[in-house]
């Protein structure tokens, strides 16, 4: 075992987090946690993991569910492609007859990349594959003084090779968990705990005064701005919604009548009341500005064929984007 691994695992034994999916070797529950925790904080993700395990205790239960059921349970987590991929992968696993136990087999599941495959493989099957995520980039770039911009092919190759060389093959799962915990709780993006760091004596970034400048980040794509105007129709206890299509945000989720861009005019079929206007909603690469109007009418307006009318009381049975959920709370 390398000196790096020894120090890290000693720190982990004293400071590692106690998380429910670490108390099992069930690959289904481990996989579920990894998908949920992509782009999600531990505190929020834990509650969702518990709800999924309760609602779908086995991968067969998840595979047998409808996509709407899965999206509804996922509601509020965002990045809904994760939920659709989770559902598709569950059906893959059922068709295979068992959860795949090789790195290649796990990697072949829908929505599973190199990081997730290494995590599941090491935690559930002791496969000696190092994980490389934002936490690992940060820890290794600081300790070893690596300034290759993360997000590049060169960085992925370099950091993966380094992490793999440090991983003890006899304890791959513990090492990977320790790396993630150390980056998340000690070697944090802001205000890392350098005074108590077991690597303080050898950290290149600390010695050179570069802790705040490492890792070097690749410039991200430009942020796109969009304007959404929603009309919530209310007609004799019914309202109109439609499911968003493929190729855009919130695929498969439901929303009220939408006018994208600057509206030329609002419907004049009934009483129009502004509910909320100028609401800003930030996505990873998009900034949305949304308005919501209530239109109370005695006659259903003519809407495009993709819109359906449902009882207002049934709206909670449909998976809605977080923005829509927040807007409709005021309606």
Helix/strand-derived category reads: alpha+beta
Say how many strands there are.
6
Q: How can the largest sheet be summarized?
A: 6 strands, mixed
Main sheet: strand order: 4-5-1-3-2-6
Count the helices. How many? 13
Q: What share of the residues does DSSP label as strand, in percent?
A: 15-25%
Architecture overview:
The protein is an alpha+beta fold. The chain has helices at residues 3-15, 27-36, 42-55, 59-64, 67-74, 81-96, 103-107, 114-125, 134-144, 153-166, 172-185, 204-208, 322-328; strands spanning 224-234, 238-243, 254-260, 271-282, 286-296, 308-311. Strands 4-5-1-3-2-6 form a six-stranded mixed β-sheet, with helices on one face. Helix 1 crosses helix 11 (172-185), helix 8 (114-125) crosses helix 11 and helix 9 crosses helix 11 (172-185). It is globular. The mean pLDDT is 94.
């Amino acid at each position: 075992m390398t000196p790096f691994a020894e120090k890290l695992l000693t720190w982990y034994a004293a400071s590692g987090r106690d998380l429910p999916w670490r108390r099992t070797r069930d690959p289904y529950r481990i996989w579920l946690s990894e998908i949920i925790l992509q782009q999600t904080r531990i505190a929020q993700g834990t509650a969702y993991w518990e709800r999924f395990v309760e609602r779908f205790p086995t991968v067969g239960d998840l595979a047998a569910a409808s996509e709407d059921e899965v999206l509804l349970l996922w509601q509020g987590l965002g990045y809904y492609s994760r939920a659709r991929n989770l559902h598709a992968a569950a059906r893959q696993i059922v068709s295979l007859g068992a959860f795949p136990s090789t790195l290649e087999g796990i990697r072949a599941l829908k929505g599973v990349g190199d990081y997730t495959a290494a995590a599941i493989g090491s935690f559930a099957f002791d496969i000696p594959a190092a994980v490389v995520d934002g936490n690992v980039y940060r820890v290794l770039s600081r300790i070893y003084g690596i300034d290759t911009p993360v997000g590049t092919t060169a960085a992925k190759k370099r950091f993966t090779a380094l992490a793999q060389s440090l991983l003890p093959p006899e304890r791959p799962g513990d090492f990977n968990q320790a790396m993630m915990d150390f980056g998340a709780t000690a070697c944090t993006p802001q205000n890392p705990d350098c005074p108590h760091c077991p690597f303080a004596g050898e950290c290149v970034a600390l010695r050179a005064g570069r802790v705040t400048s490492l890792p070097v980040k690749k410039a991200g794509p430009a942020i796109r701005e969009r304007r959404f105007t929603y009309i919530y129709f209310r007609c004799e206890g019914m309202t109109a919604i439609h499911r968003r299509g493929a190729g855009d945000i919130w695929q498969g989720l439901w929303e009220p009548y939408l006018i994208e861009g600057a509206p030329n005019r609002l419907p004049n079929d009934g009483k129009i009341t502004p509910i909320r206007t100028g609401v800003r909603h930030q996505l990873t690469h998009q900034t949305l500005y949304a308005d919501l109007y209530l239109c109370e009418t005695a006659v259903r307006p003519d809407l495009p064929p993709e819109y359906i009318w449902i009882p207002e009381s049934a709206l909670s049975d449909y998976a809605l984007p977080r923005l829509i959920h927040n807007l409709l709370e005021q309606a």
